Automatic annotation (TrEMBL):
Keywords: DNA-binding, Phosphoprotein. This is Response regulator transcription factor. GO terms for biological process: phosphorelay signal transduction system; regulation of DNA-templated transcription. Pfam families: GerE, Response_reg. Residues 143-208 form the HTH luxR-type domain. The keyword DNA-binding applies. The keyword Phosphoprotein applies.
């Protein structure tokens, strides 16, 4: 019997995941967490074989997203982590694998694919949702663990955009032209395989660029 801990800040999501996980009779949900603080406490105190966690959850002491993944990897390196995310872009996929995730599911497909992901990680394999695999293929990346690299100026622009500044305000702040800032923003989004400002801001938050 595989012991599973699940974490999501929405109770209805946890209820659905528990039903799906326990349906085949080979897995048991041994604990549930509603945020990163409770999750880390549970993992430290509750023996388990697999962790299924949301990517973005509010926490008072511990960070979510990549920070949580990195901490889990350091504290429990042998615990397979299945990440469930609504931030379905290539940048998130690459960085999440680099930070130790063993499987990544799109929230829209998590119920259907969760048993497949559990089976994969329990056998030492990785798993990616079908819709996310398509994005990886379209991006032309054969290496899921390759982390996109931004230049220092591109990272600076992304950070300031995510903190609420406009392109014009950034240009005035760093003494560059508006067209230069716009180009750096566009180049950063291309490198990250991100197409919308919402995804760009989500990436910046998850990457620890902004609180």
């Amino acid at each position: 019997m595989l012991r599973v801990i699940i974490a999501d800040d929405h109770p209805i999501v946890r209820i659905g995941q528990k039903v799906v996980i326990e349906a085949n009779g080979r897995c048991k949900v041994v604990a549930e967490a509603d945020g990163p603080d409770q999750l880390l406490a549970l993992v430290d105190s509750t023996p388990c074989d697999i962790l299924v966690t949301d990517f973005a959850m509010p926490g008072n002491q511990q960070a979510d997203g990549y920070g949580l993944l990195g901490l889990m990897r350091r504290r429990h390196p042998d615990l397979p982590v299945i990440l469930v995310t609504m931030f379905a872009n290539v940048a998130t996929l690459r960085e999440s694998f680099a930070q130790g995730a063993r499987a990544i599911l799109a929230k829209s497909a998590s119920a259907r694919e969760l048993p497949l992901a559990i089976a994969a990680v329990s056998e030492g394999r990785t798993f990616v949702s079908e819709c996310l695999r398509a994005q990886l293929a379209e991006a032309g990346t054969g290496n899921q663990q390759a982390v996109p690299q931004l230049s220092g100026k591109e990272r600076e622009v992304v950070r300031m955009l995510a903190s609420g500044m406009t392109v014009s305000q950034i240009a005035a702040r760093v003494n560059r032209s508006i067209s230069t800032i716009s180009k750096q923003k566009s180049t950063a989004m291309t490198r990250l395989c991100i197409s919308t400002d919402v995804d760009l801001f989500a990436y910046a938050r998850a990457a620890g660029m902004v609180p």
